[in-house]
Amino acid sequence: MKRILASLALAASFSALAGAADSTTINGWISDSMCGAKHAGSGAACVKKCVSGAMSPVFVDESKKEVWKIDNPDAVKEYLGSKVTISAKADADSKTVHIDSIAEAK
Fold first, then answer.
1. 3-state SS, residue 17
2. 9 exposed, middle or buried (CB, 10 Å; 0-12, 13-18, 19+)?
3. Distance (Å, rounded) from C-alpha 76 to C-alpha 98?
4. Distances from the Cα of 104 to the Cαs of 2, 18, 19, 83, 85, in angstroms?
5. Chain segment 35-88, per-residue pLDDT in tens
6. The dihedral of CA 83, 85, 86, 91: what is its sign?
7. Cα-flanking dihedrals φ and ψ of residue 3, to 5°?
8. Which of 75, 105, 77, 78 is nearest to 88 (CA)?
9. Beta strands 96-104 and 67-70, pairing class
10. Cα-Cα-Cα-Cα dihedral sign, residues 53, 67, 38, 75
């Protein structure tokens, strides 16, 4: 029950952000669409190999370990496998983020 409520709260917060077209700042990792959250914090070499082999880069939310598609993948090509802080607009319905800015997390 707690998981469902937490998921609904997260979805509602992302929906509100997407509706307002404002950016939010989130910490997480850049992974690939095949492995998703499995590489959160490790496996940079595998992420790079998978993305070069036609997998899409994805963003893994650090706190929830949720995987989000990236609608502008060129924005993350220098950060594959890295822990990052992004400023992004989120679309909870399609589970997609548009990254406005990205930097290595400290």
1. helix
2. exposed
3. 11
4. 31, 24, 27, 6, 6
5. 998 877 677 899 999 999 999 999 999 998 899 999 999 999 999 999 999 999
6. positive
7. -65, -40
8. 75
9. parallel
10. positive
Is residue 70 within 8 Å of residue 96, measured between CB atoms?
yes
Torsion over CA: 15, 10, 58, 78 (sign): positive
Q: Whole-prediction pTM value?
A: 0.77
C-alpha 27: how far from chain center: 9
pLDDT digits (tens, 9 = 90+) for 7-23: 545 555 554 444 445 88
Matching residue, tokens 């496998």 = 81
Structure tokens at 38: 């499995």
Dist. CA 49–CA 54, nearest whole Å: 9
- 93 φ, ψ to 5°? -65, -40
Structure tokens at 71: 């609608």
